[in-house]
Amino acid sequence: MTESVAETPLRSRRVTGWSLLLWGLAGALALCQAIIWYGPETPALAVLEQFALQLGIMALLTVLLALALRRWARVILLAVLTATLSWPAFAPRGEAAVVTEPARLKVLSANLWHSAASHDRTIEALLATDADIIGLIEATPAWRPALAPLYAKYPYRIDCFDLDPECQTALLSKLPIVKPMTGRVWKATPIVAGGELLWNGRPITVLATHWFRALVRSDESAWGAHDAERSAYLAEGLPASRQAGQAGLLAKFLDREAPGDLIVMGDLNSAPWSRVQSAFRAKTGLDNQAGWAASWPTFLPWPLPLPIDHVLARGHLVVTKFEAGPRTDSDHFPVIAEIGWRD
Fold this sequence. Notes:
By secondary structure, this protein is an alpha+beta fold. It folds into two domains: 2-90; 105-341, Deoxyribonuclease I, Chain A (4-Layer Sandwich), CATH 3.60.10. Helix content is 37%, strand content 21%. A hairpin with a 2-residue loop joins strand 6 (191-199) and strand 7 (202-210). The protein is globular.
């Protein structure tokens, strides 16, 4: 009897502790959802929207804990948070476009990583994919000698390595590049590499690019003086970030300099459901109806990596398949897309 009486308060304290933990987790998740819905301009707060999937899974795990403790009010609250937090990652994309020709263009985007300790695994993996076009990001001077095997397989390439010390972007192609397009976008950033190619006798434009991280504020970059007006080209209320300014400038550039069938690939440092990328897609018509793939960082288990590497298409071009590629020497997985033609 004595032991039973002594155990009861201990059990009660444990239950109370778990209950308080539930309230704390529910409150933190609700606060994250409120911040995301508010749409703050401060990049440090706006970055929460990138983690919709992770926050949704955390809410789901907390739902299971609430079920085990039979805290029904919190079960309902957390179930709602699970749905609202994860909805952007799984929102319906509508019906896939009808592809009218059997031919497919295989496109690969790879962030080589400036801190890679070796190169062989990456080069072997990229060669093995046998992609038609490869976009390279963070192709630093240390990487360039290792790219020779790729140059041998891809006779057409464009970069701005010799023109700009900050250029680390390149496009390699099996198809002729008939109209090169490389360097800083209107003497600012981002940098693009690519141009007009001929695919099955039709001209298409393919560009590789790299955006700043979402946490970089406009006033933390020498190139951020006009970020507000550039991001306003996309939409009102975007974060006051260097990334938003780059996305706005690139969107304006694409609409004026590459108005036709277009593929844009690269490390956009943003999830597809983020405000900046959503506005960029809406303004330019670029999209990926095949979905997204978690690509960074490779050293974290699913579902912790973020989908920040992308291949987007518009016009007669449509992404019919999209997936993460094999592990390489980089902290990014490469991403591989199949592109089809629609009427």
